From TrEMBL:
<dbReference type="InterPro" id="IPR040079">
    <property type="entry name" value="Glutathione_S-Trfase"/>
</dbReference>
<dbReference type="InterPro" id="IPR050983">
    <property type="entry name" value="GST_Omega/HSP26"/>
</dbReference>
<dbReference type="Pfam" id="PF13417">
    <property type="entry name" value="GST_N_3"/>
</dbReference>
<protein>
    <recommendedName>
        <fullName>GST N-terminal domain-containing protein</fullName>
    </recommendedName>
</protein>
<feature type="domain" description="GST N-terminal">
    <location>
        <begin position="30"/>
        <end position="109"/>
    </location>
</feature>
<dbReference type="InterPro" id="IPR004045">
    <property type="entry name" value="Glutathione_S-Trfase_N"/>
</dbReference>
<dbReference type="InterPro" id="IPR036249">
    <property type="entry name" value="Thioredoxin-like_sf"/>
</dbReference>
<dbReference type="GO" id="GO:0005737">
    <property type="term" value="C:cytoplasm"/>
</dbReference>
Length: 161
């Protein structure tokens, strides 16, 4: 990630702290494999959804700047997050993945009562709409600011401020 006359930018390629503990607890085979990058806010939102809904998954850390073949097989653009499902199918794009998780792991598709909802129930369409408005606000304001913050840390560590 450098151009002529520019220093090489360093970035974290592995999780640390509590995130690393979570990664380590999700290394067993599961119906879902999530390919992610620890510094990506779009990965983090899917990660939070998987944890909140208590969905078993395997986590594979990827360097999105050095796209592994397994990621490219799922998503030819090599973007994260990407899900590999046990039936051989795959999904990309965080909002699409979250909608899939909500629909696939909520009543009536599950009867175990183990997977909390991300949205209010279908019987509350107004509540669901209000929640979607809040998500849209976060997508427009918080996520870009958070991503700029992460990029600034990488540049500061590399001495490129």
């Amino acid at each position: 990630m450098s151009t002529a006359g520019q220093k090489s930018i360093n970035y974290r390629t592995n999780c640390t702290g509590k995130a690393l503990e979570t990664v380590n607890s999700h290394q067993d085979e599961a119906e879902i494999t999530m390919f992610g990058a620890n510094f990506c806010p779009f990965v983090q939102r899917v990660w939070v959804a998987l944890e909140h809904k208590k969905i078993p998954y395997r986590y594979v850390e990827c360097d999105p700047y050095k796209k592994p073949k397994e990621l490219l097989d799922l998503n030819p653009k090599g973007l994260v997050p990407a899900l590999k499902l046990s039936n051989g199918r795959s999904l990309a794009e965080s909002t699409v993945i979250m909608e899939y998780l909500e629909e696939a792991y909520s009543p009536p598709n599950t009867s175990d009562g183990q997977h909390p909802l991300l949205l209010p129930p279908l019987s509350d369409p107004y509540g669901r709409a209000r929640t979607r408005l809040q998500v849209d606000q976060i997508n427009r304001t918080f996520v870009p600011a958070f991503y700029r913050f992460l990029q600034a840390q990488v540049c500061a560590e590399a001495g490129l401020e």
